[in-house]
Every structure is written in structure tokens, then in C-alpha cells.
Design goal:
CATH topology of the largest domain: D-Maltodextrin-Binding Protein, domain 2
CATH superfamily of the largest domain: Periplasmic binding protein-like II
Structural class: alpha/beta
Strand order of the largest sheet: 2-3-4-1-5-12-6
Order of helices and strands: EHEEEHEHEEEHEHEHEHEHHHHH
Radius of gyration: 20 Å
Oligomer: single chain
CATH class of the largest domain: Alpha Beta
Distance between the termini: 22 Å
Number of domains: 2
Helix content: 25-40%
Amino acid sequence: MEGALAGVCPDPLIIQTDWHAQAEHGPTYELLGQGYEAANGTVTGRLVASGEVDTGIGLQIVEGGPAIGYQQVSSQMYQERDIFLGYASTDGSVGSSLDQPIVNVMAIMEINPQMIMWNPEHFPGVEHAADLPGDTTLLAFWGAHNLYWLIDEGLFDASQIDQSYDGSVTRWVASDGAIALEAYASTEPYIYEVETPEYGKPVKYELLHDMGFQTYSQNYGVRPDRLVEDRACLELLVPILQQAAIDYVHDGAETNATIVDVNAVYDDGWVYESGLADFANAEMGRLGLIGNGPDGTVGKFDMERVQGIVDIMIPVFANPEINTPILEGITAADIVTNEFLDSSIGFE
């Protein structure tokens, strides 16, 4: 394995993430060797396998979100063509399929961590998000594709949805949890119970996955041209990515320390503490957010499940409020492939 990627893969190999450095990106930071340097939203070091084996090339991990002007990662991958892997989702890949197609080569997360949460004291007896009172406000990030699905399925009315969530706890605290919040099961339960003393209580939630929106929300994606031009690299690299996901879930302490350190160096207003990183790492394992796909292979896409999301998203992107043209006749095979995965790599 030592030096295996030298002369085969780009050097450095650039991975574009979708947000600030966080534990949800743990499998990617698991690839980063010691002696890294971080500045201006980019961390640079050696690409290592199994935590210590130098693969012979460098690695750059680039933050998304505000670091790239809140652009979609797919758009960034077409502007900055040196980006090798970009974070992608199957629902997002449907939306970019016509003008900026992305093919997902590995599912980083088996289950989407997005959920809808509520205060069980304010809504006693509610077990499912759909059972919340019909006048309950759902606070969410702007532009989330699943919001249109929630409306189409009759789970929420458009009048209930407030797309002004920015990660701040202010609105929830002010209402004492009298609203619902779309957020992340690996993050917000800890933030509200532990890091927010003015609230400081457990929340209850339901995963969107369990509600029926079964997107693969966090994947490694490439531009289609790389499937041909960089096939030899992908054949060697993807199994390393698979193993990194397993290694991170089994023991993420060192990688979490790197993520916390990188955020401290960036000093860009994003505060990320070790307690949250440790919670997220544990929850991703406990909830199976990072886990095996079909036939026990980590990172493998269930093609029927992907097709289900394609079918859900076709009318969503045709909605006049979105009006995003997509590839005509799109199928699961247009946006995902399992061809580079090693079927022997999975959680036991």
C-alpha cells in the first residue's frame, strides 16, 4: 500500500467538502497524515491509508459553505477542475444532472443524518414528526430539497415552513422548543442539551430517512470525465476511502482532534468543540449513519433506493418554485456507480 497512489492519482488529490470541518467529515480527515498545514479554509498534508501508510501523494481538503461563497459543490467542481472528489448527494445530483453532472462513487453515509426534532415536553406523546400539530412551525435551512417532498407528501403544509434557520439556537430557545426544527441527528441534540444551558434538555426527533426520504446525503462524487481519465486512480483510491470510513467510526479520537484543531486555526467564526465531535462520532456509529450498504459492503449504493430518490426528485425540480431542468430520462445509473468498491471491505 505504501506509495500505491504515486504516479496514478493527482498530486495533491483535492477533496471539496460541503461545509466547515466537522465530525460528519471524519472519514475524509481520517485520510490526512500528521504534519498537516491549515490556512484559509484548506488543509494540506499527506494522504495516508489505515491512519499511517503514506500512499505517495499529497492531500488537500477544502471547506465548503461560506469558504466557497455558499456555492453548490458540483458548481465548484466545474469551476475548479483540479478538484478530484466533491461531496455530493443523490438528490442534489439529480438537480445538477443536466448542466453539471456528478457521478457518486461511494456513499460516505449510509443513512442521511437529517431529522426533524421537537421538545417532548411541549409536544407530549408525539412519536413522529407527522403527528405534530398542524400549526407547528418547521424551522429549516433555506432551499432544502426535502422540504418540497414533505409538502408533496402532506406531512407539512407550506405555510408551516420557515426557511430562515442559520444554525443559531436563538429561535428555539426563545420558544422553548415550541417549534419543530430540521437539523442533524449527529449534531443538534448535543448542541441543545449540552452546549445551550438556557435550554439544556433532551429533544426528540425522527430521521427523514425513516420518514421515507432515503437520499444518500453525503457521498464522494466525481465529474463523469474522471471515470475514464482517472479510472486507475479510482480503482486504488476508493477502497482506501472505504477503509477510512470504518477506521473513523471504530476510533475517531485522533481525527476529531485534527478537526477541532483545523477549525481553531481557521478562526473564521465557526466554533467546534471536542465534545460535539465525540458525540457526533459516537452517534454516527450508534445510528448506523456510517455503515454497510447492500451485501455488507461499506459505501455501496442500493440502486433501487437511488432510483426511488430520482423518482421523488423529478417532480420536485419541476416545481415552479425551483424550476431546475434535469437530464431527460434520468435513472440511478446516471448518478451513482458501485464499480470501484471493494466488496470485501465492510463493518463486521
